[in-house]
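Q: What structure does this chain adopt?
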Amino acid sequence: MNYFKRTFFLILSFLLLEAFFFKHLSPFFLIILSVSFSIIGAYFVQKSVFSSFNELKIGLKRIRNSDFMARLDDVKGKDFREIAEEFNNLANELLKYKEKSIKREKELLSLINSIPEGLMLFDENSNVVVANDTLLKMFPYFNNEAPLASLSIPSLNSFVSKAKEEKIPKSEVLVESGKGKGRTFETTYIPLFKENYALSIIDVSVEKNLERIKYDLVANVSHELRTPISAISSMIEVLEGEKEEKIRKDYFERLKNQVERINSLLNDLLSLSRIEEGNYQFKYEEIKIKELFEELQSGLDALITKMNLEVSLEIPEDLIVKSDYVLLESILKNIFENAVKYNKENGKVFLRATRNQEKVVFEIEDTGEGIPEEYRERVFERFFRIDDHRSKKSGGTGLGLSIVKHSLKLLKGEINLQSEIGKGTKFIVTLPLE
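A:
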C-alpha cells in the first residue's frame, strides 16, 4: 500500500543521513536513531491514513441517512483523494436525483389535488398513503395534522371488501353512521400494483337529496290534487242529475271552494319554485308596515269575522322598511293566515313590529292550540301538517311556512318559533335593514 512505501522511503532517508553526516558516530547509535525516526514517521503516516478512513466512514453514514450534501474534502494521500473525488461525484448525482424526485412528487401531488373527485391511495395494508385536497374537503372534520393512515370510514371499508370479493368496482355508498352520516358517495375501486389500490369518490348527496325532493314533490302534489279533483268529479255527476236550485247552488259553492283550493296549491308551488330558482330579481322599495298588515287583515276579514277573532295591531304609524315587497308580503301573509286559520273561536291575534338601527322584528302571535315540541322544526317542511284533517278543512296547502323559510333565506332573515300547548304560538321574524 502507499503508506508502506512512504514508511520505507522514510527509513531509507535516515540511513542516507547516517552515511553522509554521522560517520563518526557508533553503528549501534545510528541504528537506534534510524529506527526511532522510522517509527515516528510511520506513526504520522498511519494517523493520516486513519483520519482519511474516518472521514470516509462519516461520509458514507451521511449518504445512508439521505444526506446527499456530504463531501470528502479533508483527506490525505493520492489514493484517498481519488476515492474522495469519486465519492463526491456520487453524492452530487444522488443529490440531483433527490431534487428531481422531489420535483416529480410535487408535480404528481399537484396533479392529484387538481382532480375534482376525491382520491385516496392505499398501501397493501389498507392504510391511506395519499388523500387529495378534494377528499379532505369532503371530510373537513379529519385533522390535517393526523397521520393519513388514521383516515377511516366504515362504509367505505365495507365497499372495498365487497369490490374485492365480488368484482364490483363502482357503487353508491351511503354513510350510515359516524362522520359523514347521511351523505352519499359514488365510489370507484381501482386496483393498483400488488395489493395497493385507490378509491375515486364523488359526493352525490346533493343530487340524491334533489331526487328525493322531486319524488316527494310529485307524490305530494299528486296526493293533494287527487282529493279536490275527485270531489269536483263527484259534484259534477250530482249536478248533472239535480233539478233543485238550492242544492245545485250549494254544490256550485263547493265546486268553487275546491277550484280555489287547487288554484291556491298551484300558486304556492309556483311561488316556491320561483324563490328556489336562485335567480330571483329583487325589487326593493319603501314599505309602510302598518298599511301592509291592514291590507292583509282586510283579505282575511271574512274568516276573522266567522271565527269571532280579535286582532290587535301594535305597529307604529311611521314604521317604514326598505325591502322586497313580494317576499315580505308573502312571509307576513302566510304566518298571519296560519294565526287566523289555526286559532280557537273567540281567540286573539297579536301583530307587532319594532325597529332599531340594524334590524326590524315582527311578531305574530295567536291563541290557538299550540305546536307540539317534536313538530316545531318540521312545520317548515313542504306539505307537512300537524293535523291533516284540520289543515285541509281550512284550505291549507302545507306549503306556507316552507315559502316563508325560503323567502327569509333570500332576504337573509331569521325566524323563531315559540309555542305552548293549549295557549298558542308566536312566530318571530327578524330582518336586517341592509
